[in-house]
Amino acid sequence: MENKNRKTFFMFLLAFLVAFFIVSFVEVLRSSLLPSGAPEIQSASAISPFDGSTPSSFADLAERVKPAVVNISTTKIIKGKSFINPFGRSPFNDYFGDDFFNHFFGDIPQRDFKQKSLGSGFIISNDGYILTNNHVVENTDKILVKISDGKEYEAKIIGTDEKTDIALIKIKPDHNLPVAEIGDSELLRVGEWVIAIGNPFGLAQTVTAGIVSAKGRVIGAGPYDNFIQTDASINPGNSGGPLFNMQGKVVGINTAIVAQGQGIGFAIPINMAKNILGDLKTKGKVSRGWLGISIQDISEDIAKSMDYKGTTGVLVTDVFQNDPADKAGIKVGDIILEINEKKIADSHDLLLTVASLHAGERAKIKIYRDGREMIFNVNVSERKNEPEIALSKSEGNFGIKAQEITKSLAQQLGISSDHGVIVTDVEPGSPADEVGIQPRDIILQVNKVKITSFKQYLSEMSKAVKNKSVVLLVKRGKSNFFVSIREE
C-alpha cells in the first residue's frame, strides 16, 4: 500500500515538472519572437477606463444655468365667435358644413375668447432682453414672462423673424437678471452631451438630457433650415428654451419635435440667432443679402457635360437683370464654388450663406466657367420679399423643380423659348406628383398669369404657396392643359 502511494506521488511530481517545462519553453519562445521593446497585449481589464466625459450627474450644471431660463405664457383674443361646436372638428362638420351650426345657433350672442399657450425662453442681457421662438409670441395680445424667482413681467416684442422662427422680446425688471452665456454652435459635435431646459406641458424649469444626434438637418420648416437634432426630450412648451452644452453655454434654441418619433427633437443653432440679433434689436426685422440669381444643384451628368470634376458647388440657372450678380458679370451656366472663401456645398448651403450677408457688403465670389476659375466682387443688396433662389429640392413650390428655358435648351429639346419655364424634376409623393406633373412639362401660366421669365414664375408661385393652391397651364408635347394643385 505504501509503495502504491509513493508511486502516485512520483507521477504527480513528474506531471508538474513536465507542465512547468512546457510553460517555461513557451515563454522563452514568445520572448525571442517579440521584437525588442514591443508592447505586450493587454487584457481587457488593463485598458484605461473612459476619461470621464460622460457626466455622472447634471445637477451642478442645471443648478448653474436654470436661473437664466424663463417661462412664457401668451394670450390671444379670438373675436366674434358666436358658437363653439360641442362636437369639435368631426364628421358632422364635413357632412353638414360649418354654416349648419351657425344657422341653428346663430342667435347666441357673440363674445370674445382668450386662447392661451405656453413656451420658454432665456435671458441674454441683465436688463431684460429674452430670446425665444417666433411661433411662441406671434399674433399674441399679451405676453407674460415668469423668471426663476417666481416674479412675472409683461413683455413686449422687439423683433421677429418668421423664416428662422426666432424672436426677441423685452421685459422691464426691477433688478439685474441672471444671463445665459452664449456659445458657438459651429463647435458642437455629433455625440456631445446637451441638456434642454424649458416649460413642457406647463411643468416649469424641466431639465432633460441627451446627445447631439445630428447637425444641419433640413426638415421643411422654412428656407433656412439648419437644425441641431437631439434626443434630449423636447415637448410642447419647450419651444424657445435653451439647449446647453456641458460648459453651460447656449448652443441652440429648442423649437420642433417629430410627432411620429419619440426622442427626436430639433433646435435652431445659436449662431443663426447671433447673426440676426443686431437687426432684431435695431430694426425689429431681419435684412438679408440678395444676389439676384436662381440656382440648382449639380448632378453627375451636368458636371460631366460641363467638364467639371465633382458635384459640389451650385449651377446658376438665371441671373436677374440689373441685380447684384448681373452687374458683377456672373452669367447663367456659371458654377459658384465659394463665397468669401467659404466653400459652397449645395443650394441650401448657398442660401444660408447669402442670407448671412448684409446689404452694402462686398462679397468675393469664386466661380467655375469654361474650364477655369474666376473671381467676381459683388455688391450685395437687400433681399426682397420674393424668392431669390430656386432650391433644387423645390421646397414650398408644391414639389416642382423648374428652370428658365434658355435658347440652347430650347434648341436641344426642340421647344419654343418665347415664354414659360420647364419642369426639371418633381418630388415623389408631392402635390405636383399626385396630379401628374412630369419633368420636361412647360409651365405657361400660374393662376392665369402668363410666365415670361423665371423670376416672374418664382414670384407668382410664392403667392400661390401662401394660398396653398395653384392652377397651372401646362404644355406637354403639342398639347396644353390646365391642372389644379392643392396642398393639404
Describe the structure.
The protein has 488 residues and is of the alpha+beta class. The chain has four domains: 67-170, Trypsin-like serine proteases (Thrombin, subunit H), CATH 2.40.10.10; 181-282, Thrombin, subunit H (Beta Barrel), CATH 2.40.10; 289-382, Pdz3 Domain (Roll); 400-486, Pdz3 Domain. 24% of the residues lie in helices and 33% in strands. The strands form five sheets. A seven-stranded antiparallel β-sheet has the order 5-4-1-2-3-7-6.
Category by helix and strand content: alpha+beta
Distance between the termini: 100 Å
Number of helices: 12
Broad shape: globular
Number of domains: 4
Radius of gyration: 32 Å
* CATH class term of the largest domain: Mainly Beta
What is the CATH topology of the largest domain?
Answer: Thrombin, subunit H
* Main beta-sheet annotation: 7 strands, antiparallel
| CATH architectural type of the largest domain | Beta Barrel
* Beta strands, count: 28
Q: Percent range for helical residues?
A: 10-25%
Query: Which spans of ≥5 residues are poorly predicted at pLDDT below 50?
Result: 31-52, 386-395
How are the strands ordered across the major sheet?
A: 5-4-1-2-3-7-6
For this structure, what is the CATH homologous superfamily of the largest domain? Trypsin-like serine proteases
Mean pLDDT: 80
